[in-house]
Amino acid sequence: MYRNQDASLPDVLRPGVLELLRLKDKFRLGILAGEPTYLLTHFLRQVQYAAFMAGVPDVPFTDQTILFSWGTSNRVLLVDYQLLTAAPGELQNVITLHPWDQKQEYDNSLAKLSDVILELLGNLDASTDLRMYSAMISDEVARRLRNA
């Protein structure tokens, strides 16, 4: 989501955010951000509304408070635009994705990310350590975006 600095303008969801819903049958989806809780709640409401308008009644996103109840960190992947925001011990969990500029009307990064995650992780055993795939996913998404 892009948060406008001008409070008179609405916040805007990154194009393609609903592409992540393709992951919901195989993965739990969470939102983890360094934003105050009320902003995460606002974002979740925007995603839920967009999903409802697209005919998807159940949005499986959760906020950061749920992340820590998911078990060990070897089953968690985080998506961010930089590695610098990773907390100690999370570096291997981060998939990097370029930041979105609100001026871009079209952005297929989240569609490519969903494609790559489903291709590389979709059929793995539930005990597989996903952290060893984070850099591979980052590289493959970047490659596909360059070649698009």
Brief summary:
Helix content is about 30%, strand content about 5%. It has about 150 residues and is mainly alpha-helical. The two termini are about 25 Å apart.
Q: Can you tell me about this structure?
A:
The protein is mainly alpha-helical and 148 residues long. The chain has one domain (17-146). It has four helices and four strands. The chain is globular, with a radius of gyration of 15 Å. The two termini are 23 Å apart.
- The class by helix and strand makeup works out as mainly alpha
**Domains counted in the coordinates: how many?**
1
What profile does the largest beta sheet have?
2 strands, parallel
Helix count? 4
Uncertain residue ranges: none
Helical fraction: 25-40%
Task: Give me the side-by-side strand order of the main sheet.
Answer: 1-2
State the distance separating the first and last CA atoms: 23 Å
Instruction: State the total count of DSSP E strands.
Output: 4
DSSP strand content? 5-15%
Q: What is the succession of H and E elements?
A: EHEHEEHH
Give the radius of gyration. 15 Å
Q: Give the rounded overall mean pLDDT.
A: 77
Shape: globular
Layout of secondary structure:
Blueprint: E1 29-30, H1 37-53, E2 61-62, H2 64-67, E3 78-80, E4 94-96, H3 109-121, H4 134-146
Parallel strand pairs: 1-2, 3-4
Structural key phrases:
mainly alpha; 148 residues; globular; 32% helix
